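ARCHIVE CARD
Drawer: 12
Card no.: 0347
Subject: one protein chain, sequence and derived structure
Cross-reference: see card 0346
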Amino acid sequence: MAGFVNAADVAAAAVEIERRGYGFYRQAESRAGAGADKELFAFLAEEEQRHERLFAAMLERLGGVALPAGSTDEEYLEYVKSLLDSHCLFVPAQEENFLQAPLPSAIRLEKDTLLFFMEVERLVPDSEKSAVRECADEERRHLKKLLTRM
C-alpha cells in the first residue's frame, strides 16, 4: 500500500472517530439508568457531535480527501480503516464489551482520542491547529469528568 498521510486524511479520520464516539455515548446513555451517568453520557454524545461538525468543516476547508496517484478507492479505504481500527473503541468485536463497562470504556475512548488529536495537531496546517488544540483540551476535561465518576 502506498504511504500517504495528509491533513485531509487525519481530518477525515477525526470525523469518523467523533461519529463513532457519538454512537457509543448514545448507546451508553440508553443503557444507563436515570441519573448522573445517563446525563454524563448524553453530554459527551453532544460533545462528540459538535467535534464531528468541527472536523467536517475543517475537512471541507482542506479540500476534501484526494487519493494519491496510483492508489485505488479500496486501498485508501483500507488505510483509513486501519487508522480508525487502532483506536480503542473500534477494535473489531469490542463494542459490546465496551458497553458492558461504559465508564472505564469512556475513559479509554477519551484517552485514545486525546492522543490522536495531539498527533493531528502536528499534521494540520497552522490555520487549523487552534481548533484541534481546543478539541484536545475538551477531551482532557471529559477525561477529568469521567475520572471523578470512578
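Annotation on reverse: The chain has one domain: 7-149. DSSP finds six helices and no strands in the chain.
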